[in-house]
Design brief:
Number of strands: 5
Order of helices and strands: HHEHEHHEHEHEH
CATH topology: Rossmann fold
Strand content: 15-25%
Number of domains: 1
Number of helices: 8
CATH superfamily: HUPs
Helix content: 40-55%
Largest sheet: 5 strands, parallel
CATH class: Alpha Beta
Structural class: alpha/beta
Length: 170
């Protein structure tokens, strides 16, 4: 019997597995959408962003910064949740098709290997500044910047937790 957890785990793959999936999807003329991030504390902004990204094509692939990568980018106190938790949380969304971990600070190598049709980032980016935009555009793809949902961020959640902790311990 295949459990729901088994189904979620099938969405998490290695780069070599993902390349095979992408090759098959291209043969079927499917549109591959890619985004990436740390996704440390999932909030409404992430859900809206990923759902909107998924609406842009046939398959949504998330490049997830590994624990090592997050520490390089954000410091030793991060991530709050480990990569196992983060990848299964992302895989649990019905609109997420594949999750792949990467250890580098940027997903440039990953984007170069899978060559998505659409590269998506959040509203704090300009299309030309997005890592991998050159690769996607050279292959006839598009870079799309989706707006943020105001008032939702991992940093804001962290600050609220810290402030609440300070109030309770003082």
């Amino acid at each position: 019997m295949v459990t729901n957890l088994d189904k979620l785990k099938k969405k998490v793959c290695s780069l070599s597995e993902l390349k095979i999936v992408c090759d098959e999807l291209r043969k079927e003329k499917k549109t591959i959408v890619f985004t990436n991030g740390c996704f440390d504390l999932i909030h409404l902004g992430h859900i809206v962003y990923l759902s909107n990204a998924a609406d842009l094509g046939d398959i949504l692939i998330i490049g997830l910064n590994s624990d090592i990568s997050v520490q390089k980018l954000k410091g030793s106190g991060r991530p709050v949740q480990d990569q196992i938790s983060r990848k299964i949380q992302l895989a649990s969304f019905t609109f997420v098709d594949k999750v792949v971990l990467f250890d580098e600070e940027t997903p440039y190598h990953l984007i170069n290997e899978i060559k998505p049709d659409i590269l998506v980032k959040g509203g704090d980016y300009k299309a030309d500044d997005v890592v991998g935009a050159d690769i996607v555009k050279q292959n006839g793809g598009k870079v799309i910047i989706l707006p943020f949902v105001p008032g939702y961020s991992t940093s804001a959640i962290e600050m609220k937790i810290i402030e609440n902790f300070k109030r309770q311990t003082s």
